[in-house]
Amino acid sequence: MNNIINFYKPRGLSSAQTTNQIKKMLGIKKIGYAGTLDPVACGVLIVGTNDATKALTSLTNVDKTYEVKILFGVQTNTCDITGEVTEISYHYPTATALAKLIEKYQNYAYLQTPPQFSAVKINGVRAYKMARKKINVPLQPRWTKIYRCELLEFKLPVISLRLHVAKGFYVRSFVNELAAQLQTVATMLRLVRVQCGNYCLNQTVCFAELENHDGY
Predict the structure, then answer these.
(1) 140 secondary structure, DSSP code
(2) Is cis: bond before 157, omega within 30 of 0?
(3) Closest C-alpha to 213, from 17, 49, 55, 53
(4) Cα–Cα distance between 100 and 185 in angstroms, integer?
(5) Was domain 64-196 assigned CATH 3.20.20.70?
(6) Hey, do 3-61+197-212 and 64-196 end up sharing a CATH topology, with the first three levels equal?
(7) Which residues of 94-110 are buried (b: 16+ CB within 10 A; e: fewer)?
(8) What is the pTM of this model?
(9) What are phi and psi of 143, to 5 degrees?
(10) What DSSP designation does 172 have?
(11) Active-site positions?
(12) What positions does the domain Pseudouridine synthase II N-terminal occupy (predicted)?
């Protein structure tokens, strides 16, 4: 059982919890994944079993595509709908202002700061563990890139976007950045990873399929 599995991670589980369940289900010795997907998110999670875990480093570095639903007017400490509300605004962007900003985000490379609630390590400690204790530590910005940004839905106070991005991109940080550019606040309602390199959402397998399949 040395496989790369294109797995559908459900909402509510962390990437680590997901792979731990797969490990127990398949009775394998070693497992890993490429590219952390937040508990609030769902979609493509590339999983490697046993010797196939060696391929995960290269798979972590591939481009990814997301579909994100954004709620304007509310900001939370986690930058998503699961967090504590920290700010409310009744200023909503116009379709024209949003369209201009989306145009700017085509093939756009920039320095992005990870959210406080993230898996980034600071002196060996995950940032989210400190954030839970109300300890805010400055996180170093890092270069990333948006290859394509596409508007899927505009029904204020909610919009939906499709983002094709480089490795290391934080969608929750992007939501805050987008709102700030539009002089308001926002939070992430829903996130789906629809593609990771050549692995697509419509080709994923779920827990039930793994349990009933001998090929893994």
Answers:
(1) P
(2) yes
(3) 49
(4) 18
(5) no
(6) yes
(7) eeeebeeebeebeeeee
(8) 0.91
(9) -70, 135
(10) H
(11) 38
(12) 23-171
pLDDT digits (tens, 9 = 90+) for 130-156: 667 777 777 788 999 999 999 999 999
- The CATH architecture of the domain made up of 3-61+197-212 is 2-Layer Sandwich (3.30)
Question: How much is the mean pLDDT over the chain?
Answer: 91
- Contact between 112 and 170 under an 8 Å Cβ cutoff? The reply is yes
Amino acid, res. 89: S
Which residue is it, tokens 């805010």? 136
* Domain boundaries along the sequence of the chain: 3-61+197-212, 64-196
Is 7 within 8 Å of 22 (Cβ atoms)?
Answer: yes
- Tens digits of per-residue pLDDT, 47-86? 999 998 998 989 989 999 999 999 999 999 999 999 999 9
φ and ψ at 137, to 5 degrees?
Answer: -115, 130
How far is CA 2 from each of CA 32, 52, 163, rounded to the nearest angstrom? 12, 5, 31
What is the Cα Rg of the chain in Å?
Answer: 18
